[in-house]
Write a structure and sequence with these properties.
nine-stranded mixed β-sheet; DUF2163 domain-containing protein; Pnp Oxidase, Chain A; globular; Phage_phiJL001_Gp84_C; seven-stranded antiparallel β-sheet
């Protein structure tokens, strides 16, 4: 492979499985089962890769394209954390001698006019996260994860509904949705399962049920795309990570990952009386 036949090819894979192939070559390329398009430019600063566990440092930039990396999808967060792979290859024979020079994920994505920029995070990035258990009276697991073992699709802990009234992608109201008690979904999740906002989710801040059976749910932050009337959503119960909640609300105390009998800070600093 000579310098005159070298091209770069990117594959970007979203969490929902959608794959986009981009190249800085002026013609389409096909490699590794992916079609790489030249009309959706994407470039990167020089890849900096350390020999030890240092974090790879680079930045990708490109032009928003309606059918590839679109502005609405970026705003909605659909590309957050997407897997990125970058190859150097011979555009005359893409499958011969291709070299993988970067693998990681998209970090923070910013937009300037019609351009986007995204930090590239290398495979060593997760090693910088805190490891080990937290000793705390409340549970350290996330509802529905491998430690909690709650099935979030269980009808006892959530329900499916159709959007009736949506305000600013953050406040949702149903005229009659009283299957669960007041505040049942606080700290839970509203997950969109249909329409243009499918795949997006938000954490529930408030869940209020009035005497008529109407339910009003408010999210902490607006969804990246506005759900429409009739779109399918799922409401998932909230957990405050307390032992009584785990036992009474979810009947899951055997999997509780907190330490409810730890002495409080007041007990630790209280003066001792000598006998």
């Amino acid at each position: 492979m000579t310098s005159t036949t070298i091209a770069r090819a990117w594959s970007v894979t979203r969490a929902d499985g959608m794959v986009v192939g981009l190249t800085d070559h002026d013609q389409p390329l096909h490699f590794n089962g992916i079609d790489f398009r030249p009309d959706s430019g994407m470039s990167a600063r020089a890849i900096v890769q350390g020999a030890g566990l240092s974090v790879d440092n680079s930045e990708a930039a490109g032009i928003l394209s309606h059918d590839a990396i679109s502005e609405p999808d970026l705003i909605a967060g659909r590309w957050d954390g997407a897997e990125v792979m970058l190859w150097e290859l011979n555009w005359q024979q893409p499958s011969a001698g291709a070299r993988l020079i970067f693998r990681g994920s998209l970090g923070e994505i910013t937009r300037v006019g019609s351009q986007f920029k995204a930090d590239l995070r290398g495979l060593s990035e997760p090693l910088g996260k805190a490891q080990g258990r937290v000793y705390h009276p409340r549970c350290s697991a996330q509802l529905g994860d491998a430690q909690c073992r709650i099935d979030l699709d269980d009808p006892r802990f959530g329900l499916n509904a159709k959007v009736e009234i949506a305000e600013e992608g953050r406040v949702f109201t149903w005229k009659a949705l009283n299957t669960f008690d007041d505040r049942w979904f606080e700290r839970g999740v509203l997950r969109v399962e249909g329409g243009t906002a499918k795949g997006l989710s938000g954490t529930i801040k408030n869940d209020r049920l009035d005497a008529s059976g109407a339910r009003r749910i408010e999210l902490w932050l607006p969804l990246g795309a506005m759900p429409e009337t009739g779109d399918a959503v799922r409401l998932i119960a909230g957990c405050d990570k307390r032992g009584p909640t785990c036992r009474l609300k979810f009947d899951n105390y055997l999997n509780f990952r907190g330490f409810p009998h730890l002495p409080s800070e007041e007990w630790l600093v209280a003066p001792r009386v000598e006998r």
